[in-house]
Amino acid sequence: MNIIWLCLPAALLITSALSVQMTDIRNLRVFPGFNQSIAGVMLVTSLNELNQPKYAFNASEARRLCWSLGLNIASKAQVQKALSRGLETCRFGWIDEHFAVIPRINPIPSCGRNKSGLVPWRASVKQKFDVFCFNETGE
Ligand SMILES: *[C@@H]1O[C@H](CO)[C@@H](O)[C@H](O)[C@H]1NC(C)=O
Ligand SMILES: *[C@@H]1O[C@H](CO)[C@@H](O)[C@H](O)[C@H]1NC(C)=O
Ligand SMILES: *[C@@H]1O[C@H](CO)[C@@H](O)[C@H](O)[C@H]1NC(C)=O
Ligand SMILES: *[C@@H]1O[C@H](CO)[C@@H](O)[C@H](O)[C@H]1NC(C)=O
Fold it and tell me: Do the domain assignments include residue 9?
């Protein structure tokens, strides 16, 4: 009896994690690519029905999405290191510290307000962005 009560929640968790991964992966774009990273860091973007990128994750959904891919949400230090190794995006992503960043090497007005470095956006946790995930075995 005890064993059943202990195993059931675990089984449900595993099933739901797998189904999230199965259903969502076709609607996701990963930069620099699926199973790829720069210094372990990748940007995960949701795609709408027309396959166009769409900011879709609030702060807690962002964290959960990385978990569903078997990864963790990246920290500021991890994205900073990836930036120093050449990671540059034109989209904001949530990081572990509950704000969004855009890593910029070249300042251009249409990406990150023409700034370079790790450009922060201290938005409400309800705001939707992409997410930076971290793969520690891919570092
Ligand atoms: C990513 O790696 C996993 C596990 O090795 C594999 O099952 C999956 O097909 C890979 N995905 C892509 C898009 O290459
Ligand atoms: C994590 O990195 C390892 C090693 O590079 C790679 O084999 C694996 O596919 C990566 N996983 C994801 C989900 O990107
Ligand atoms: C963007 O930044 C660059 C370098 O910091 C500067 O030279 C340029 O004038 C800026 N452009 C705009 C449109 O603000
Ligand atoms: C994020 O979205 C989830 C799912 O829609 C929702 O349950 C949660 O309350 C939202 N969190 C915030 C901070 O808006």
Answer: no
- The number of distinct structural domains making up the chain is 1
Look up the pTM and report it: 0.85
| Ligand 1 center from residue 30 Cα (angstroms) | 12
Distance 136 CA to ligand 2 centre (A): 8
Give me ligand 3 centre to Cα 124, in Å: 28
Residue with tokens 């064993």: 3
Q: Is 108 in the pocket of ligand 3 (CB under 6 A)?
A: no
DSSP-assigned letter for residue 106: S
CATH number of the domain where residue 68 is located = 3.10.100.10
Torsion-angle region of 97 (φ positive above 0: left; ψ -120 to 50: alpha; else: beta): alpha
pLDDT tens-digit readout, 52-98 = 999 999 999 999 999 999 999 999 999 999 999 999 999 999 999 99
Residue with CA closest to ligand 4 atom 12: 126
